[in-house]
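BUG: 3D viewer hangs when loading the predicted structure for this chain

Environment: internal workstation, default settings.
Expected: structure renders.
Actual: progress bar stalls at 90%.

Input used:
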Amino acid sequence: MNDAPLDALAAQCLSVRDLIDSVGDPLMRAAIDLLLIEVGKALAENCAPDHRAEA
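Structure tokens produced before the viewer hung:
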């Protein structure tokens, strides 16, 4: 699987997270953090086995 879309999604989520922090809504912050966790898991699952051993 191509990680480029997931990388782009992670970058966008981080930008949104910064905006949410400026708004100060804890529920929105929790939602974006959960989304970032799920994107991170998906990226990790797609990572080649030799790359996982290095991490």
